Each structure stands twice: as structure tokens, then as C-alpha cells.
Fold:
Amino acid sequence: MSNPNDLCPKPRSRVSAMKEYHPPLGNRDALRLDFNENTLACSPMVREVLSRISTGDLTRYPEREPVEAIVASHLGVSPQQVVLTNGVDEAIHVLFETFLDAGDELLLPVPTYTMYEVYASATDAGVVTVQAEGDLQFPFDRLLAAVTPRTKLIAIANPNSPSGSVAKREQLLEIARCAPHAVVLVDEAYFHFHGETVMDQVGSTPNLVVARTFSKAYGLAGLRVGLLAGSLQLISWVRRVLSPYSVNSIALACLPAALEDDAYLDWYVGEVLQARREFEAALDAAGLRRWPSSANFVLVDVGECHREFTERMRNAGVLVRDRSSDPGCGGCVRITIGTREQMRHAAAALESALADLRPGRKKI
Structure:
């Protein structure tokens, strides 16, 4: 008897060869230090907007353009230079679908955000990686040397994940200048914790595209809203590929309120930065190697016991992310930074986990 699956239509060869991505979403009621989200809440002004949304509001298709105009004004660019997307993941996916063709190459410094390579693998382009050194700093010179006529897109997370390292503004603009035939994506998902941007250059640098998300500092990960900003020409091509209704009406209703509440955003970012300093001091006192971070997370080397460490933290109600399979990150875990109170709890859980795994080790 034939297997019904044998008769099922087959996908493109590129799709069948893709790696599957399975986010570790179990036990999400614990302290969530594994996804770099806002660990507390969104702005109270957003909650007020949510309370006013009626069932009738849900019967209409979402209108993206009026909110894009508000976002553009907030960023200091024209509305035609901004497109809102269903999270920054859709922004990356659509950008790659728009520009990567057979024979093209995506150039990536690694380690970096996993989904760049996943989305590129669904296209007919190749992926060229440039490995960072042991300090995981941005490999500027070697990345420039890797640019060829086939380089069609260069994706740079700034700050980078999982390392928290940054590329200097001058380096990013030099890459765009030296590769005018390539789209240069600067993914500023963690911009608010770093403070440096190239957003002001999207009009004068024609091949530059900046991505932002509202899933991190703003605390809107569940609403799925991100953006791309770039030249009028680049964004017009992206709009051809992007669904006109991919950003839902609830996200569009809440986004202006989130942008308006600067006081809450400033408070939360300040809380995270102070908590990061305290937690890094605890890591140093424990004798653990870590990498300097300009984001709301820190990469820590716990060695061969990384799996056991991650599991013990989970059992203690603290979720951390094992990144040991990332290039150059053997034995490493990434720990999101929340509030000071949350990170003091995380530091205590870390101390207990290490005491069990490394008897006789230095105590915090």
C-alpha cells in the first residue's frame, strides 16, 4: 500500500533543504530571559488604547499608511521611506525576497541573528559568512574584503545578537559606500539600549536600509510590528512584495501610543542599563567570561556544562538561551537583561546552578 505522503506535492528544492527553526517556547510563565523581550510590560498608554478597542474595530481591514506617517515623523524621515511589517522578521524576509536572486550572495558577519540565513536559504542566492574573532567584535576589515560583484545584500545586526557587540557608525557607512551595488541592511532591533543609529542616513545613502522592531524596548512582541526605512526607490520595491494587510489593526492602533510615551520608554531602558551593570558585576565576581554588551542581554561562557546550566536555570524558574551552537560561541549562553529586581533573582539562580555544577568554585 502506497504512503499518502508520497503523493503529496513537493516544495521547491530550496525549501526542502532549509533548516527548520524551532524556538524554545516551553514554560514561558517563568522569568523570560531567553528572547530579549521587554521583561515587564508595555506602556500604560498602550494598555489604555487596548481597553478602547471594540469588536466592531476588528471587522475592518487594517490601514497601515496613516500610522506609517506617524512613525516616519517620529524617525525624521518621509512616510514614503518607511514601511511597517509584521515584526522585524517579516521585514527581513520580504527584503530578501525582494532583492536576492539566483547567483547573488548574502554577506553575513557571524555569529549573528539566525533568521538571516534561514530566510536567505529560501531564495536562490548563496550565503557567505565572515567569522568574528574570539572577542566577537565586528569583523570590519574582513567583511569589506569579502565583498564581490556577486554581493547583493549585506545584513548587519547592530548591536549584534548573541554577542552584544557593535559596528561603528563610520564602519557601516563605509561598507555602504564601498558596496554601492549591494543593499546594506542595518538591523537596529536593540537600538534603544545602544543609542547610536544610521537612521539619519537613509535618504542620503541610497543602498542603506534600517530595520527596527517594537518587540524589545517597547514591549510589543505579541503584537508583531517592525519596520524598514530606506530610500524611496528601495522601499517602493519592498512594497511590491509586502502584503498590504500584514500588520494587524490592533498593532496599528497601539503603536502611536507606544511612540508617544517617551517617559515610560526612557524609564525602562534606564532600568535595563542599570540592571546590566549590576548583573555584569555579578558575573565578573563569579569568574565567568562574558563579552561587552551594548544591548539588553549578555553572552556568558559557562563551558561544557552549558546544557546542564540552562536546564538548572529553567528548573529555578529562569529561562536563558543556549547559544553554544552559534559559530564561535561554544559553551555560551545568552541571558536577557530585565529589571534590577529580576536580575538579582537571576543572579541568585545562577549562583545556585554553578554551585551544583562546579563544586568549590568562586562564589558571587
